[in-house]
Amino acid sequence: MADLTRWDPMREALTLRDAVNRLFEESFVRPFGSWGLATREDGGANAVAVDMYETDNDVMVKASLPGIKPEEVDITVTGNVLDIRAETKGETEEKRGDYHYRERSYGVFQRSLTLPVEIKGEQVEATFENGVLTLKMPKAEQAKARQIKIQPR
What is the CATH number of the domain that holds 50? Predict the structure, then answer.
């Protein structure tokens, strides 16, 4: 049998010191924040910035993936959940004088979205231009709005 633990709201509250430390860390130590090319210290992935809107027939999603190539993006639709994941690895090497300059970047971008309506998963169209992924997802027939006329008596 599972033990019940009393919920203590103060246990989950941040102390002022923790909040200030997080502010400085995200602002100065990791200046890219959720856009950066490095994964977070906790091993999580950076969030993908998205715009999602509906038209009469489609659900449209535009996702910003700066510095990502189309072949590095993985898109899946399972039920009414859309997953966008991209992983990038980059390495440049440059010789300067008597020393070696080397820069490596690695990043994982990921976002899961619950779609507002059912879609036709097999008819999703994806385009990628200038770091912006655009998904056009046709609505399922039962999800489309229908005009209902009132019959006179």
Answer: 2.60.40.790
